[in-house]
Amino acid sequence: MTVTTSAPRRVGVSGVAVAMAGALTSGLGYLVPVLGARHLGPGDLGALATVLAIAAIAGVPGTGLQIAVAIHRARTPGAASGRIGWLTAAVCAGVVLVLTPVASALLDLPPVVSPLLAGYTGAVVVAGRWLGELQGDERFLRLAAGMAVLAVCRYGGLVAGLLIGAGLIGSVLAGTAVALLIPPILARLARSRADASGGTGIATRQVVTACSATLAMLVVSYADLLLARHLLPADASGAYAVGTVLTKGALWAPQVVTVLALPRLARGNRRALMIALGLVTGCGASLVGASALAGGLAFRLAGGADYVDLGRYAPVFAATGALYALVFVLVNAQVAAGAKWPSAPLWAAAVGLLVVTEWLAPHTFTAILWCAVGTAAVALALTAAATRRGQTSRRMSPYAR
Q: What share of the chain is helix, strand, coil (3-state, %, to 5)?
């Protein structure tokens, strides 16, 4: 009898631990723009939100790396991942450096910010190697600890900089310095005897596919924020940045479901996908309902009393995040199943959003917001259709059960 009850208990404990680590990540990520709204003017607040968006997008390959490593480790215990981890981090940091002149001119950012972001990005991306090993091995308690370390080091310096009044550049500098502590701490945490055996290395194609899918996911979900910064006046873009805090909360709140399901998805467990979709749908519906009932409070908590009047838009921001949370589950399922182009529907949705907001829709707060939620719905429909087709064509997969 003990055997039959211990497994669900372990899953429950692991789920709580990962959820707490995810909540810490979301809380600290939420705290940075909240402090920015209180310690920076509207112009610098919009710039800070843009910096965070660029860092999130540039750091997305770290999540893709984690997914690829976790899937491969679930199928091939002890698989090596060190070389591909460092290579992925170096490429991401290099891209940030190369794009420095473009980002500074187009988004009106101080030139010194981008080199700092390069170091910050490299440290965050390489963390995906060790988190993926822990996730694929289903060492979820250590994974939760690793997620907590990543969250504290990723956001701790930024929070400290804002609290002491260091301004935009000083805060980014402090954030980069603390982020450099991530690799040595996670390397020690993820160490195990299994790693010494080496196993079969991960193919570059696996990482590229996972990174492309995850990058597309984050680009399409952050594109409205970047477009708001580009198309709206400073005050309006700052207000929009506050609203996107609700979007990101709804997107990442059910992250634990996907984290726990991924190793099973990698081994072809279709039931795990249906359970994950049901749980994420329930979470999203709850958050949208709460936003509808307390939109003013949500905006007050996100940005202060100056933004309470925007509370009527809270359910729309939350719905956008809830839709993208479902997209994230389906994208992970496609990557786990070995789909060749899981990112295609997301890139199509992102291009559509750019075209509509830049050339067809009015350049207003509400127009960009409704374009964003519409794009989320389209992305979900396209990804669901691609997932359904993929499941039909892969019935005979060697990993299917």
A: 85, 0, 15
Q: Give the span between the Cα atoms of 158 and 177, in whole angstroms.
A: 10
Range list of β-strands (E), 118-259: none
CB contact at 8 A, 31 and 155 = yes
Q: Report d(CA 41, CA 20) in Å as an integer.
A: 32
Q: Give the span between the Cα atoms of 127 and 103, in whole angstroms.
A: 25
Q: Which amino acid is it at 227?
A: L
Contact by Cβ (8 Å): 298, 339: no
DSSP H or E stretch at residue 226: helix 204-231
Number of CB atoms found within 10 A of residue 393's CB: 11
* Cα atoms in the 13 Å half-sphere on the side-chain side of 250: 31
> How far is Cα 219 from Cα 241, in angstroms, rounded to an integer?
15
Secondary structure of residue 115 in the 3-state scheme: helix
Q: Give residue 280's pLDDT.
A: 95
User: How far, in Å, CA of 192 to CA of 188, rounded?
Assistant: 9
Q: Which phi and psi (to 5°) does residue 233 adopt?
A: -60, 165
pLDDT average per 10 residues of sequence, the chain (401 residues) = 53 81 82 81 72 79 90 81 85 84 70 84 92 90 93 92 84 90 91 56 84 86 89 87 89 86 85 92 93 87 81 93 95 87 92 94 93 95 87 53 42
Angle between helices 60-75 and 204-231 (to 10 degrees): 150
Place of tokens 């059960």: 401
Q: In this structure, which amino acid lies at residue 295? A: G
Q: pTM of the entire structure? A: 0.79
CB 156 within 8 A of CB 32: no
Distance CA 133, CA 79 (A): 8
Buried/exposed code over 240-258 (b: 16+ C-beta within 10 A; e: otherwise): bbbbbbbbbbbbbbbbbbb
Residue 215 CA to residue 211 CA, distance in Å, equals 6
Tokens 């390489």, located at residue: 126
